[in-house]
Amino acid sequence: MTVPDTARPWTTELGSRMREHFFLKAVGTTVWVWVFFIGYFHMLRHPAYPVTVMPLTWLDHQVAFEPAALVPYLSLWLYVGIAPGLQRGFRPLLVYGLWAAALCAVGLGIFHFWPTQIPPMPVDPTAPGFALLQGIDAAGNACPSMHVAISAFTVLWVEHLLRRAGAPAWLRLANVAWFLAIAWSTLAVKQHVALDVLAGAALGGVFAAASLRWRPAERPGPVAAPRTAIMSRQ
Known about the structure:
Blueprint: H1 10-19, H2 22-45, E1 52-53, H3 58-62, H4 70-74, H5 76-79, H6 82-85, H7 90-113, E2 116-117, H8 130-136, H9 146-164, H10 169-188, H11 194-213, H12 227-232
Parallel strand pairs: 1-2
C-alpha cells in the first residue's frame, strides 16, 4: 500500500503538481506528440515492407461501429497530458519523457519492420468526423495500437501519481474508466482490431512497469504543519 507523500489535502497536492513547470509540460507534451506523428504518418504512407492484414477475432464481431466512440478516441490527446502534468521536479519529468519517447520509438520500429493494416470494416462515412478521420489516419500502422499503448502507459503512471497524492478511490477508478473507454473506442470506431488492442496494452504495460521501476526518486511534497503546532504559535 502506497502512503501519500504529503499531509496536504489531495486537491491541494494535485494542484501544486500541475502548476509546477506548467509551460514546460504543456510545450514538451505538444512537441512529443508532434514528433511522433511525423514518424507515424511517414511510415503509414511509405511502408518499407509488404503490409500484413490483421485477422478478425470473435471480439471484433461483437463490438459494433459506434459514431459516439469518436469522443473517447480523440480524448487520448488530452489524457496523455495528465501523467506528465502531475510530475514533481524537473528530473522525474525528463525521465518520464524519455521513457514515453522510447515507447513511441519501439512502436514506430515495429511499424517499420512489420507494417500492418486492418481489413475493410463496416463504417458509416457520413457520421460526423469519420470522413476526416479516415482521410488522415488510414487503416495502416495497426498492430500494436499505439493509441492503446500510450493509454496503457498513461493509466499506470496516473494511478501511481494519484496514490502518491492521496487521491480518493473514485478518482483513481475514473482514471481506469478513461483508459478502458479509449481502448474500447479503438474497436468501436473501427480503426483497430482486438489483436492490435491486446498488443498495444502489452507494449504500454511493459514500458510503464519498467519506467516505474527505473526512475529517479521524486522529492517529498510539502507536509502540512500539525494544527496543534500552528495554534501554539498564535
